[in-house]
Design a protein that fits this description.
Shape: globular
Radius of gyration: 21 Å
InterPro entries: DIOX_N, IPNS-like_FE2OG_OXY, IPNS-like_sf, Oxoglu/Fe-dep_dioxygenase_dom
Order of helices and strands: HHHHHHEHEHHEEHHEEEEEEHEEEEH
GO molecular function, one term: dioxygenase activity
Oligomer: single chain
Distance between the termini: 52 Å
Family: Belongs to the iron/ascorbate-dependent oxidoreductase family.
Keywords: Iron, Metal-binding, Oxidoreductase
Organism: Salix koriyanagi
Number of helices: 13
Number of strands: 14
Bound molecules: N-oxalylglycine, nickel (II) ion
Helix content: 25-40%
Structural class: alpha+beta
Length: 408
């Protein structure tokens, strides 16, 4: 059924790690680094007649996603998934001499229970504010969402991606017309190299799609998770505002709770995790992202010249600042670059991102006037969200944040 040829067979079949927590061990990727550079060089210079756009189109037309490629029994990845030497050499840690543990838990995990108590609340606001200024990322625990809701949601998304291919294909589309779409690589036709993941996208707010449009295998779970995520989003927006010294309701008033979209990713086993990535380095567009991840790991955040792991913490939810919040906060909070390594574990990795965007897209957005002073002049000009999101979706997810575009 699937006719892509795999002309490039480099390196040996990667040995599979069975254990879940050490799949992305640093020493492993260091050892493999020489092979990567070689492979990428070959990729750049050989095979003149390789018709990349045809292969990409065929892959998209097949509607099977990367999960389907793996199921078809491939042992090396198609050439259009191989990233540039530059990207691949950056997959290895830079300061390898450092003790791994000194960097291993840099991203803070914050207990957000007991916010009714004003002392406790200001301590939490302080932690959240600091995490947003330094990393733009943190995890929350004791967030009030029952742990079985988290597990059921992740399980349901796994269930969707593991439906028989023929059945799953029915949702394969690049347009979000019905509010639900299954696809591989949102930026497949804009990127220089494809990444090793499939995604189920869904509009969550202001309204869910018609219930019958949502795949039955994850319908109830997503309806539930959407409710909880919206509640959590509200609490977080308050904390984020307070961390900037603003009224708690500011972000909500700008309708950032109301337009939510979901990207539920499946990162299947990749036979050559050193030649590709799970998701390319990028920043998130909206104001805030709420992310559920399972225990496999692979999400990394840029910190100086290094990449630090966002280690899976059981029961925790990952939160990160998006471009719009960096702009609104006039660079106080950081919309940080992040990426996911290709998954070298046999076990697939599942993650579910919810992006909070403004419902009122034609309003002007720019740095909050309260945060502008002669000492801290506005760093960005005002813009309408419609313009911003159009730019976002016609570029590749390549780490070059759009915030620069609006810089004064
Ligand atoms: C995203 C994203 C991270 C992950 O969807 O924007 O960064 O862990 N996902 O899947
Ligand atoms: Ni992201």
């Amino acid at each position: 059924m699937f006719s892509i040829q795999f002309p490039l067979r480099i390196g040996s079949t990667h040995s599979h790690h069975k254990e879940h927590h050490s799949c992305h061990s640093k020493t492993g990727s260091q050892k493999r680094n020489r092979k990567i550079i070689m492979a990428a060089t070959i990729n750049d210079t050989t095979n003149q007649e390789y018709d990349r756009s045809k292969e990409v189109r065929q892959f998209d037309d097949s509607k099977i996603g990367v999960k389907g490629l793996i199921d078809s029994g491939i042992t090396s990845i198609p050439k259009f998934f191989i990233h540039s030497a530059e990207t691949l050499s950056d997959l290895k840690p830079k300061r390898s001499s450092r003790l791994p543990d000194s960097e291993s838990n840099l991203i803070p995990t914050i207990d957000i229970s007991g916010l009714e108590d004003s002392n406790r609340r200001s301590a939490v606001v302080d932690k959240v504010g600091r995490a947003c200024r330094e990393f733009g990322f943190f995890q929350v625990v004791n967030h009030g969402v029952p742990l079985e809701v988290l597990d059921r949601t992740i399980g349901a998304i796994k269930g969707f991606h593991e439906l028989p291919t023929e059945e799953k294909m029915r949702w394969y589309r690049r347009e979000m017309g019905t509010g639900v779409s299954f696809l591989s690589n949102v930026d497949l036709f804009h990127s220089k190299a494809a990444s090793w993941r499939d995604t189920l996208q869904m509009t969550l707010g202001p309204n869910l799609p018609e219930l019958e449009e949502i795949p039955g295998v994850c319908r109830d779970e997503l309806v539930d998770w959407n409710q909880y995520a919206k509640q959590l989003g509200e609490v977080l927006m308050e904390l984020l505002c307070e961390g900037l010294g603003l009224n708690a309701g500011k972000l909500k008033d700008l309708t950032f709770l109301d337009a939510r979209t979901m990207a539920a990713h499946y990162y299947p086993y990749c036979p050559q995790p050193d030649l590709t990535v799970g998701i390319m380095s990028h920043t998130d567009p909206g104001v805030l992202t709420v992310l559920l991840q399972d225990q496999i790991g692979g999400l990394q955040v840029k910190h100086g010249e290094d990449w630090v792991d966002v280690k899976p913490v059981p029961g925790a939810i990952v939160i990160n600042v998006g471009d719009i919040l960096q702009i609104l906060s006039n660079n106080e909070y950081k919309s940080n670059e992040h990426r996911v390594l290709a998954n070298g574990c046999q076990e697939p990795r599942i993650s579910i991102a919810i992006f909070f965007n403004p419902l009122k897209r034609d309003n002007l957005f720019g740095p909050f006037p309260e945060l502008i002073s002669p000492e801290k002049p506005a760093v960005y000009r005002e813009f309408v969200y419609t313009d911003y999101i159009k730019r976002f979706f016609t570029k590749e997810l390549d780490g070059k944040s759009l915030t620069n575009y609006y810089k004064l």
